[in-house]
Amino acid sequence: DVKVTQSSRYLVKRTGEKVFLECVQDMDHENMFWYRQDPGLGLRLIYFSYDVKMKEKGDIPEGYSVSREKKERFSLILESASTNQTSMYLCASSPWGGGSYEQYFGPGTRLTVT
Amino acid sequence: AQRVTQPEKLLSVFKGAPVELKCNYSYSGSPELFWYVQYSRQRLQLLLRHISRESIKGFTADLNKGETSFHLKKPFAQEEDSAMYYCALRNSGGSNYKLTFGKGTLLTVNP
Predict the structure, then answer these.
(1) B90 reaches A (C-beta below 8 A)
(2) What digits encode the pLDDT tens for the residues B30-65?
């Protein structure tokens, strides 16, 4: 059973703080993704990574950065949190090739920036 | 540019009634489409993909290239089908493992 875990279910931070969201997968997947999920806006891709130390910007990368030092771990960093970054953050992973493009999602981190 | 449109934010039906969640896409190549579902307090998960041509939990979805649609259907809705549903399109080209998601439709099945 694929397991994608996220470090926190709920997080409250202050404006200007540096925030780290951690994601770990145990299926040796090459690809990992960070999305934010907002009502009425659906899932929007922030960043993704297709290999260790490799990353590409998604649709809304502004205000975010990522780090992938190990294959199983993908971190999302908010350099200086702002109130408009209050959202649900979803991490996902998927294998490379093999005909399967299914993404496996973590439970989400609900971040509130005050 | 690829785009996935789910025209209904909210859909409410009664138990036992047929349900259809609409999905339209714009894409220049050969599309690969998926439906994902998120039940209350659960993680987002794959429901079905068009290449599998399978029925999952009574749901089916047919790719109609002429109408560029991939509507999700179930003949008799159940209360446990209440959830958020997302249609997704797989990207082509170099980043072909990326998915483009629609904005989602919240389905409520009333008793």
Answers:
(1) yes
(2) 788 999 999 999 999 999 988 777 888 999 998 898
Flag whether residue A72 sits within 8 Å of chain B, measured between CB atoms. no
The shortest CB-CB distance from A48 to any of B32, B98, B104 is to B98
Quick one: tokens of B59?
A: 């749901």
Specify the pairing of strand A31-38 against strand A19-25: unpaired
User: B4-21 burial, b for 16+ CB within 10 Å, e for fewer?
Assistant: bebebeebebeeeeebeb
- Between the CA of residue B1 and those of B25, B26, B69, B81, what are the distances in Å? 10, 8, 16, 32
Distance CA A1, CA A12 (A): 31
